[in-house]
Amino acid sequence: MSIQIFEGFGAIILEVAIALLPLFILFLFFQFIFLKLPAKKLKDIGVGFLLTFLGLSFFLQGVHIGFLPIGELMGQSLGTISYKWILLPIGFILGFFAIYAEPAVSVLIHQVEKVSGGYIPQKILLYTLSIGVGISIALSMVRIIYGFSLWYFILPGYIIALIMVKYSSKTFTSIAFDSGGVATGPMTATFLLALFVGIASVTEGRDPLLDGFGMVALVALAPILSVLTLGILYSRKEKGQDARNKAGTKINSHDR
Amino acid sequence: MDNIKETVLEVIYSILPITIVITVLQFTIIGLPIETFIQFLIGVLMVGVGLILFLLGVNVGLLPVGEMIGSALSKTNKLWLIIFFGFLLGIVVTVAEPDVRVLSTQVDQVSGGAIPKSILILAVALGVGTFVALAMIRIIFNFSIVYILAIGYGIIFLLAAFTPASYVPISFDSGGVTTGPLTVPFILALGLGVATVLRGKSASSDSFGLVALASIGPILSVLILGVIYG
Fold first, then answer.
1. Residue of B4, B10, B12, B18 to mutate when probing chain A, most A C-beta within 10 A
2. Most buried by CB count within 10 Å: which residue of A172, A240, B77, B135?
3. Which residues in chain A are closer than 8 Å to B44, comparing Cβ atoms?
4. 3-class state of residue B131 by DSSP
5. Is the model's pTM score more than 0.90?
6. Structure confidence by residue, pLDDT tens digits, B5-44
7. What is the ipTM of this complex?
8. For residue A131, what is the enclosing H or E element?
9. Please, what's the largest Cα pairwise distance for chain A?
10. Do A145 and A170 belong to one domain?
11. Min Cα–Cα distance to chain B from A189, Å
12. Alpha-carbon span A25 to A43, nearest angstrom
């Protein structure tokens, strides 16, 4: 196989142009009817659109020649490996480090620390999330090796999440469900998905369409459950503190 | 300049770990042809440069647009305008979302064209649009997100019973990928714009939950696509 870098680049540029066009038209519409921005602002926005266009084209081309083929080839070679158990630690490591370094996650953990008044330190949430997503990907490996239906993971997962909502504060509920998205960044959708499709395509009895996809769903579930758990711990602590304060005042009034 | 440096670091942090793990795997248990690996490294470079340009572009041009449209809409004080354009914006942003494109390309390939890329993107976009509109309604009338979540997931599990099995994983994955680097900041900016004008300062906590709703939409719409199309 020879190295092909710009294969299909023309098609991708066209695709990106079509993808950005609706947004651009909508902006122009608003510009003429409501916004009427001055020329200087318009120039900034024009530059922004141009950068977005170039960036998206390069990104998709890079995914097309880099992450997708290597993901699929690695998946195929991992899927035929005789010691299948190794997929679990590999999955865990991939998930753990992908989250550990993900920029969107650092925004989330900062937000949670602020909302909980420092009770949930950034480090704790970061490790909870990283381990959670690591487990999700390891579980997805289990799913693909044994051919379990996605339902066995998703249904209990969301039912537990909805039950936990009852015991968690409203703020934490919103943050938890919003954070489902932070773990599923561009790397998850590109490399990991291709890897799973690759594994499913060589594993006997697995349908890549049915078993290869679904991994993103599990990855999105992990942060929801992690944040809700910490939210419940936090609300317990709040209640505990109230109780202790009351007890404290009683003791004070009687004994001291 | 700070902005650029931050974006560059951000992109490096999100690409590096996976690249390292792949490199380690390549030289320990996998060993693909060296050309493939070199092509991959070039791909990584392009992805990195692409993401940096993309994020800068979103920050400089697209986000301010989202915020301005959000506040311009609310100033009109016409509910139907806010809801309608929330719907439209949800669609056009999703169509441009990188993660959604990558997922639908793969679905198209793996299904051998049985689930075409353009149809899947359209379904996802309609789902996001509908739920962004719903989120606007929620901000305006201020009802609890828990109800929408419970009802939303309830309908999802019901619908899944009538959809061909192969659509289920794809639908949940679509819900995950919609919340990518363009959609999230954009709808947050839009929501913040609307909430600030409607309610003043207490706005920030209301716009939480927007992302959660935006990821329910595509799950539903792709399941419905499965019922119709499958």
1. B18
2. B135
3. 62, 66-67
4. helix
5. no
6. 888 988 888 888 889 988 998 998 888 888 889 999 999 9
7. 0.88
8. helix A122-146
9. 85
10. yes
11. 6
12. 16
